[in-house]
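Input.
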Amino acid sequence: MIEPIIVVAILLALIAIGAPIFLALGAAGLTGLYMARGSMAFFFGPTSLFAQLNSFELLALPLFVLMGNFLAATPVGKNLFHAAVVWLQWLRGGLAIATVGASAVFGAVSGVSIAGVAAVGSIAVPQMLERGYSRSIAAGAVVSSGALAMLIPPSVPLIIYGAVSNVSVADLFIGGIVPGIALALALSIYLYFRVRLYPEEAPMGEIVHYSWVDRLKAIGGIWHSMLLVFLVLGTIYTGFATPSEAAAFGALGAFIIAVFIFRCLDLKGIAGVLGSSVRISGAILLIMGCARVFGDYLNLVRVPDTITALLVGTDLPPEVILILIMLALVGLGMLVDAVSLIVVTTPILLPLITTLGYDPLWFGIILVMNLEIAVITPPVGLNLYTLKAVAPMLKIEEIVRCVVPFVMVQFVMLLIFVLFPPLSLWLPNLVK
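Output.
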């Protein structure tokens, strides 16, 4: 078993010296294949990469990225936040809770967490600070709720997990609804009780009394967002379209919203969105392909089987093994980006999960819940740096510090769904 240790050491060394993650995965995997099969590695490597990317369901990934980028260029995030404020401003901490609600809905129309942080955070943080909210509440609410886009469908991480594990993306989307809503409610409840205990963190200030006409107008301002949600998810859940086909509907709908409804993109803007989407999608797909090379090497030398046998042979209760896996994933998530973590760990952990008698669909949801913690923890937490970019009045040190209690809330919710699998499987089983 010395060869797998050498291969993993090569991977970690390349990451440590700052090599691109796709290059580290590909080079380590190809080295391992060469040690195991000699010159045949140069046949197995490209074959593995092509096999990973030759998937119809993966078409959904660049299309959902394109949809999210089109929406990020519109005032959709601003309108969602305004609607939430109109309905919740009477409540102490209402602006922070409105941020959670707006981020959850924006996640349902984008699927990309950093897009939600940028779209909602650029509006929510200045408004909260202007009304006397603590910097901790303002930053923590935006960063943590922005991660909801990773779980609430259409979710890019769930698409990636589905491609790696061969679990139905449509089933994963359905399974992500209950945990996504539960996590949004948990964050809102935490904010509510926190500001009740420490009222100075969220002063009430002057309450604007909005009429029902104003509230209905605010809802009317987000009709296009809600229509897009129903268009994308409705066509999937009714069986009218596959996730890839629904993603095409979503991208077209987002294009119409950006260009013809809000008229905020000209030809140069459209070209910029297309270029950005190509770069992001290309980077994700390249990581996935190279990770498949690495994963195929691990499978070739039976590393997943060995790890499964070792852990099952310890006679530890399955719940204890699961909690150890979650802690390991939290630690890895602080060092490795979400896409790489999914494509590297899934082939290793999924055999263990199925051996323990758990559903791969459930594990995909739990894995993505874990990654929600990863994107808000340093040093790789992209949401932290995204908020710093759109809210320069906040220091990165205070953003990191203020997110700690929100991470604890997310970890408690993760443990609940780990220990009670039926909670996340209830809706998919009901739909079936």
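The chain has a mean pLDDT of 85.
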